[in-house]
Amino acid sequence: MGRPPCCDKIGVKKGPWTPEEDIMLVSFVQENGPGNWRAVPASTGLRRCSKSCRLRWTNYLRPGIKRGSFTDHEEKMIIQLQALLGNKWAAIASYLPERTDNDIKNYWNTHLKKKLKKLQNGPGHQENGSISSNSHSISRGQWERRLQADIHTAKQALKDALSFENTTNNYFPDECDTKPGFSYASSTENISRLLKEWVKNTPKSENSSKCSSSQNSYEGKNGIDLSEAFESLFGFENFEKSSNSDEFSRSGSPSIVRDGTKPDPTGLAPLSMLENWLLDDQVKDYLTNFSFDENPDLF
DNA sequence: AATAGACACAACCGCCGAGAT
DNA sequence: TATCTCGGCGGTTGTGTCTAT
């Protein structure tokens, strides 16, 4: 009769994750790899739903996540990919491997939606059917033909890029077999960053007076300093010098895998082609106004 | 300095397809 | 084959922070 339930729904904790919980989760993933989320609560003692554990890992702890503000380049990519794919945040995120779908979705909802609305209401929209770019102007017919060809090319690139799924699993490169913890090094950075932020944002007096039941508690159940515990578990003495996101930049990066289950689909070649296409001014203009409802046959 | 409203983002909810039993 | 959960996804909500008054 089907599978057994993933976890006992009664007594499952909700709300923000504590550093202590993060450490337990990362520790589990380090030993067992991502996946089998059902086993996480039972194996770690975490009073969290398996789903919550997966989400926490995916959005905050997995290797290669970049935090902070979005660059212009990222912003353009999101806008164009959203125009092309719609609200397929996971698909969009596969082109921005340092960002999570949740991040992109939030960024879209809080920033880009408004920004685009402003742009669309603002100057620069021509009503006469000709399309201008920075350097030249072409007829609508020429433009439509060129666009169809471009869309075909982009669709192929998308298809190729997305079809990387299930062909290889780069999460466990060969060397990881002999170097336990190798592929999770940046998870330690993610956590240490969270811890550092927590320390930074928590006044000392408050910090020292907090008990372990506090959501932001920095101390473990037995009064253990979690930063020390964490350091002894994983070690992040080199955090300061290695935590910059460049380590995970597209070129020469260790293959970052979203969620630990998908290979990074961003082989440089297809992405660059798609990027170039997406960032083309004319395509940008067109896609900004493009409606999939009116073009159901494109895909 | 106090307050209200806007904003940002982490986390949860509900749905769906795939797969296990 | 039927039933059930898992894993993944997109939408939504809750809450802390910022800003204007």
Automatic annotation (TrEMBL):
Residues 9-65, 66-116 form the HTH myb-type domain. SMART domains: SANT. InterPro entries: Homeodomain-like_sf, Myb_dom, Myb_TF_plants, SANT/Myb. GO terms for biological process: response to auxin. GO terms for molecular function: DNA binding. Its main location: nucleus. It holds the Pfam family Myb_DNA-binding. Residues 9-61, 62-112 form the Myb-like domain. It is found in: Nucleus. Keywords: DNA-binding, Nucleus, Repeat. Signal peptide: none annotated. PROSITE patterns: HTH_MYB, MYB_LIKE. Residues 130-139 have a biased composition (Low complexity). PANTHER family: MYB FAMILY TRANSCRIPTION FACTOR (PTHR10641), MYB-RELATED PROTEIN 306-LIKE (PTHR10641:SF1376). Transcription factor. This is R2R3-MYB protein.
